[in-house]
Specification:
- This protein is an alpha/beta fold.
- The chain has two domains: 133 residues, Rossmann fold; 66 residues, no CATH class.
- The protein has a six-stranded mixed sheet, sandwiched between helices. Strands 1-5-2-3 form a four-stranded mixed sheet, covered by helices on one side.
- It is globular.
- Bound molecules: adenosine-5'-triphosphate (ATP) and magnesium ion.
- The site of magnesium ion (MG) has 4 residues, from helix 1.
């Protein structure tokens, strides 16, 4: 598979921020003679343009998280290519946090990892606490957060460096109604500023919130 590369500047695809095609992935399980192959992706692909909110739907086990991990470079594909134009952030389906660190400490740690200055990090952190309404948990350890608040921290950490392309795997599964609306407010502001968001979910309730919806079925992607 091609390594994640940048689209050439001034290319005709100047509005494209992420383009993937021909993605295939087979998981091999067990040992011989009981080896089993699970062909999860068989030529899947998608593209994201600036200022676009795209949904990726598919039933449980259809390969959505597998595709997202390949798009972000966390999992190698067997075939296909991924091209990225600009910075990328992602929110995994299972939060990756350090259970003994507080929310504040996560922001500090991730701010350093993303190369933000202390001022940049503090400003983004304050905005994210406000946007997702969880400042009161700033000093709470991650292992003492409720599932919904943990999901807020997971999302906030992906948003901290303000990436051009944001991939979110089941972002609102644990959110209450107020947080769900706050989430869409944040996504709408990203669209207005020309950033792109891919929302991965096994169900999409509000189709009108998306510019396009792509369905993953039997290893392939198609417009819904
Ligand atoms: N690391 C792995 N090793 C082996 N098989 C895997 C692995 N990860 C996922 N699978 C299998 O690949 C298939 C697709 O899994 P995946 O998690 O990508 O689906 P999904 O569409 O994200 O599902 P969900 O809606 O439940 O989140 C499933 O059959 C799953 O069991
Ligand atoms: Mg999944």
């Amino acid at each position: 598979m091609d390594t994640i590369g940048n689209l050439p500047a001034g290319s005709s695809n100047v509005g494209v921020v992420l383009a993937a095609s021909g993605i295939s992935k087979t998981y091999k399980q067990g040992v011989w003679p009981f080896r089993r192959r699970n062909h999860v992706l068989e030529g899947a692909g998608l593209s994201l343009n600036r200022g676009e909110i795209v949904g990726l739907v598919g039933e449980n086990g259809s390969g959505k998280s597998t595709l997202m991990q390949i798009l972000v470079g966390a999992l190698p594909a067997d075939a296909g290519s991924v091209e990225l134009h600009g910075s990328m952030g992602y929110c995994p389906q299972r939060p990756v946090v350090f259970e003994r660190l507080t929310c504040d400490e996560h922001f500090e740690l991730f701010g350093v990892a993303y190369g933000l200055t202390r001022e940049e990090r503090r400003a983004a952190q304050a905005r994210l606490y406000d946007d997702l309404d969880f400042a009161r948990y700033a000093d709470e350890r991650a292992d003492r957060l409720s599932g919904g608040t943990l999901a807020k921290l997971n999302l906030a950490l992906a948003l901290l460096p303000d990436p051009m392309v944001l991939l979110l795997d089941e972002p609102y599964a644990g959110f209450d109604w107020d947080t769900y609306l706050r989430f869409w407010g944040m996504v709408g502001r990203r669209r207005e500023s020309g950033q792109a968001v891919l929302v991965i979910s096994h169900f999409i309730a509000d189709e009108e919130r998306f510019d396009r919806i792509i369905e993953l079925r039997e290893g392939r992607t198609a417009p819904k």
